Each structure stands twice: as structure tokens, then as C-alpha cells.
Amino acid sequence: MSRVTLSRYLIEQTRCNHTPADLRFLIEVVARACKEISHQVSKGALGGVLGSMGTENVQGEVQKKLDVISNEILLEANEWGGHLAGMASEEMDNAYQIPGKYPKGAYLLVFDPLDGSSNIDVNVSVGTIFSVLRCPDRNGDEGDLGEEAFLQPGTEQVAAGYAIYGPQTMLMLTLGDGVKGFTLDRELGSFVLTHDNIKVPESTKEFAINMSNQRHWEAPVQRYVSELLAGETGPLGKNYNMRWVAAMVADVHRILTRGGVFMYPRDSREPEKPGKLRLMYEANPMSMIIEQAGGVATDGNQRILDIQPTSLHQRVAVFLGSKEEVLRISAYHRE
Ligand code: F6P
Fold first, then answer.
1. Is 210 in the pocket of ligand 1 (CB under 6 A)?
2. Measured in angstroms, how far is the CA atom of residue 19 from the centroid of ligand 1?
3. What is the model's pLDDT at position 312?
4. Co-location of 152 and 296 in the same domain
């Protein structure tokens, strides 16, 4: 059987006019950067890449060496090709300007270079999450690209995906026409299509949430999780299992593979911050992937992809995965 590599898949998409050539190039460059990040992550202690930088990102989180290395790999890979007008990342306070010596393109790339980085030092899966938007028309303005160009709802994403660096390195991708999964063939150095037409099962018996925050949750989440824990003698009438990897890529990957519901609700720890996860480079790309696989993604009150962002590093509550459960959570919020 002939193998479909990521390049072949993208070229065939371009041939059917589904994917413009510059978007194809962009995805190939991101995939190449992810291969390099995968390589760096896999070196671990041998590469001297573990541990912290001793600095904090804009969220006040400690930056790991691999956070910074992954950010640099993505910036360097993407700045020269002429396909981007700008980039933004979890690891940078402001939008990244394409250096003046390079041409500028039609797209914006937003990413979390290494999601779940608290897992790095303990050799558990981490990943890269990315979202592609069109750059709004700048009417000939050649000046610096401001944050406002990026502040588009998730429905405007033209592509989204993530790479997971686990026992296998995989790239999960949507161009708005379903979700495809590619596994890295390390001998050939190519991503090969291994998971076609991925679908999230509509119902599930598995949930993912950080239970240690239970005392801070709002009433609808308290109610829902207590019903899950009540099992078959409770109102939901079945026993549920719980899994929490503490890396969104890994938890979402499991849900794409076998169903489940992922929750990071808003809570009362820091009332001015709605949730922990970031809208632009975590919730939006993951929501597009989940929806394209037939699942649902909300913040409890509305579809995540409809939220109009007001800042680059905005946080949001996230409930996503199997349709039946996410709709139940939304219903509890409405009540
Ligand atoms: O980006 C934040 C993140 O690492 C996610 O990947 C993950 O789902 C979550 O935080 C884990 O949070 P906590 O440490 O509170 O369990």
C-alpha cells in the first residue's frame, strides 16, 4: 500500500483547490519545526535541555529551557519563507514582527510552542499547539503589526493542529475539512498519514479534570462532577473513569482517539482570570480540531470558536470532547 506523507496530502489538497499553495508551505514549515522540537525533547538530559531558564513568561509561569528552545525553533523556521505577516506565542508578551529583510505573507501563526511543559522533566508527553489565521487587510500599512490583527474569533482559523511528543510523535491537523493524524516515521523523517477521518465518539465514560481545584469550582461544575462520581447509582446511571495527564495535548489526544470530556473550568482562585487555558493558542485550535472531529467545545456558556478575543493572552474556561457530555455541561450552566 502506498504511504501518504504529509507533503503528498497537502499537495493533493492544493490540487483540488482546497488549500492555497502558501498555506500548504506554512503547514509544511510548521511540521518541520515540530520534527526538530520532537528531536530536542527526545534528547532529555543527554542534550542538556531539561530544567528551567530562571525566567517567567507573560503569564508569570516559569519558563523551561525547552519552552524557549521550541519557541525559537518555530520563529526561525517560519520567519523567512514569505508566508506570514506575523506570529504570536505563549512565550512572548507581544506579536513577533517578521524581520524587514524578509517578504511578508497573508497569514498569522499563533502557537503554544511546548504545551504541558511541567511534564518535560518527568518524561511524560508534551506537545506544540498552533492556529493559523488570515492577516486582515492593512491598507498598505508597512509598520509594525499590532496585537489587534490577531484578535479574531476561532471561526476565522483556516487551519489548526498540534504535534504530540509521546511514545510516538504525531501531528494532528485540520484544514477545516475533518481531522487527519500523521505519525512521524523517524527513519524517513516524514509524517505519514495513519489516522484518516478522526471522529470523537458522541458518548463516553471518561472525564479529565484537575480534581485538586474542586473547592474553587462554580456550581454547575460541582453538580456535573458529583454526578460523574456517583456512578451507576447516580443520575447519569453509569460508572465513569478519570484521567488527567496535565498536558492539554495529551488529554485532547486521548479524547480524539477514544472519546471523553476535558474540563478546565473557571474557578474562584483568581476571579479576574476566567480559567487557566489561553484562548488564542490553546482553546481555539483545540476547539476547531474537536469540532472538525464531531465533538463540541464550549466555555460553559458559549461556543469557544465564537468568542471575540480582546487580548492575545486571554484566558478562557474550556469544556470539550464527546458531544453528549459537553452538551450536558452547557445545560447545567444555563440552569
Ligand atoms: O497550558 C497549561 C497546561 O499545562 C495544559 O496543557 C494542561 O491541561 C493544564 O495546564 C494543566 O494544569 P494543572 O497543572 O492545573 O493541572
1. yes
2. 33
3. 97
4. no
Question: Mean pLDDT of successive 10-residue segments in the chain (335 residues)?
Answer: 91 87 96 98 90 78 89 98 96 95 96 93 96 90 90 98 98 97 96 96 97 96 98 97 97 97 94 91 98 98 98 97 98 96
Ligand 1 lined by 247 (C-beta under 6 Å): yes
Q: How far is the CA of 5 from the centre of ligand 1 (A)?
A: 31
Q: How many CA atoms lie within 13 A of 79 on its CB side?
A: 14
Take atom 16 of ligand 1 and give the residue whose Cα is closest: 246
Q: Whose CA is nearest to atom 12 of ligand 1?
A: 246
The atom number, within ligand 1, closest to the CA of 249 reads: 6
- 178 shares its domain with 271: no
In a domain, 201, yes or no: no
Ligand 1 center from residue 247 Cα (angstroms): 5
Choose the residue to mutate in 112, 215, 276 for probing ligand 1, maximizing ligand atoms within 8 Å of C-beta.
276
pLDDT of residue 273: 82
Q: Which residues fall within 8 angstroms of residue 19, CB to CB, at 6 or more apart? A: 10, 13, 27, 175
- Answer yes or no: is the C-beta of 311 below 6 A from any ligand 1 atom: no
Residues 226 and 129 in one domain: no
Q: Return the closest-CA partner of residue 283 out of 315, 256, 324.
A: 315
Predicted confidence at residue 1, as pLDDT, reads 60
Domain end residue (candidates: 195, 221, 236): 195
**Domain of residue 242, CATH code:** 3.40.190.80
What is the distance of C-alpha 217 from the center of its chain? 23
Shared-domain flag, residues 217 and 191 = no
Q: Are 45 and 78 within one domain?
A: yes
Alpha carbon distance 144, 100 (integer Å) = 10
Q: How crowded is residue 103: how many other Cβ atoms within 10 Å of its Cβ?
A: 10
Whether 231 and 140 share a structural domain: no
